[in-house]
């Protein structure tokens, strides 16, 4: 099965620095196959025979601890999980000069539609969509500072998610599909 590991909080603001070549090797040494990294913020596409995403997360978190001495949370999503995100992601959403659009991947502890009640989204500014495993969020760039979603930064909820912009998310899925074709 093709998976993506989404690491939370690496190579951001000079903290938790991890070299991607070393990370790739750490994944391979942990038993993952056909490992590909995408940008420095911790997006790793790989193949594994391990059926449990929880087990894979645990193995990879331990590998990162062993190799880099860092306690980094690793969220694992299958190619099927990511296809569901793509099916729900409006095609016109972009991350550019006119619009800011993100996918907030949720840890199991907060993965429930009731999470929307805890967000401070402003319906007249923010567009927010829940789907199992993620929240999709978009706002026009001119209204970013007025968005209520920025108020979650630093909260307990925020520490239980990892965020990728829609451009990165689409590229991850593209790489996962290429990996699936290569291993078929």
Automatic annotation (TrEMBL):
Domain of life: Bacteria
Protein name: DUF1697 domain-containing protein
Organism: Marinicrinis lubricantis
Residue stretches spanning the membrane: none
A Pfam family this chain is assigned to: DUF1697
């Amino acid at each position: 099965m093709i998976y993506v590991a989404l690491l939370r909080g690496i190579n951001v603001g000079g903290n938790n620095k991890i070299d991607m070549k070393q990370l790739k090797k750490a994944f391979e040494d942990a038993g993952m196959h056909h490992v590909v990294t995408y940008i420095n913020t911790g997006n790793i596409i790989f193949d594994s025979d391990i059926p449990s995403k929880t087990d894979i997360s645990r193995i990879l978190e331990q590998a990162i601890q062993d190799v880099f001495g860092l306690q980094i949370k690793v969220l694992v999503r299958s190619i099927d999980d990511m296809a569901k995100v793509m099916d729900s992601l409006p095609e016109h959403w972009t991350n550019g000069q006119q619009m800011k659009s993100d996918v907030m991947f949720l840890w199991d502890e907060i993965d429930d539609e009731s999470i929307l009640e805890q967000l401070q989204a402003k319906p007249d500014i923010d567009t927010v969509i829940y789907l199992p495993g993620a929240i999709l969020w978009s706002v026009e760039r001119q209204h970013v500072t007025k968005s209520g979603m920025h108020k979650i930064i630093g909260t307990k909820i925020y520490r239980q998610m990892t965020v990728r912009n829609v451009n990165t998310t689409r590229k991850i899925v593209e790489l996962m599909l290429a990996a699936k074709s290569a291993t078929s």
